């Protein structure tokens, strides 16, 4: 017997679509799933989030932890993550000026999503052998 889901009169799966913003018939920026995917989109973005998940880092420390990212791309990713409300930037006193980056509460809330994406990615890479999504 397969997994049974609760559906409403339209047939919406209550687990997949628990609220009206997700009940769209075409891609919609207001859909919570689209919002979450947009938040983590972009090359290097998930790796920057991963590095900030447990502690704050300076720009230089992030470059050390992600040695293949260019300074320009890291600057761009941090800027985008700040615009999305996922990262804060704090300029520290002294010379030379140092900058520290940390996740906001919204940024930290992405942890379960990133964990589940990793798990799902592993299953997909294995071709789903012996496991179900």
Q: Can you tell me about this structure?
A:
The protein has 133 residues and is α+β, with helices and mostly antiparallel strands. The chain has helices spanning 32-40, 45-52, 59-65, 71-83, 105-108, 111-125; strands spanning 57-58, 87-92, 98-103. Strands 1-3-2 form a three-stranded antiparallel beta sheet. The protein starts with 31 loop residues before the first helix and ends in an 8-residue tail after the last helix. Residues 1-7 have low confidence and may be disordered.
Radius of gyration: 19 Å
Shape: globular
Distance between the termini: 16 Å
Mean pLDDT over all positions: 87
Major sheet: order of its strands? 1-3-2
Query: Which runs of at least 5 residues are low in confidence (pLDDT < 50)?
Result: 1-7
Bin the strand percentage.
5-15%
Largest sheet: 3 strands, antiparallel
For the secondary structure, the number of strands is 3
Order of helices and strands: HHEHHEEHH
Number of helices: 6
Class from helix and strand fractions: alpha+beta
The portion of residues assigned to helices is 40-55%
Layout: helices, strands, pairs:
Elements: H1 32-40, H2 45-52, E1 57-58, H3 59-65, H4 71-83, E2 87-92, E3 98-103, H5 105-108, H6 111-125
Antiparallel strand pairs: 1-3, 2-3
Question: Summary?
Answer:
The chain has six helices and three strands, in the order ααβααββαα.
Please tag this protein with its features.
133 residues; alpha+beta; three-stranded antiparallel sheet; 42% helix
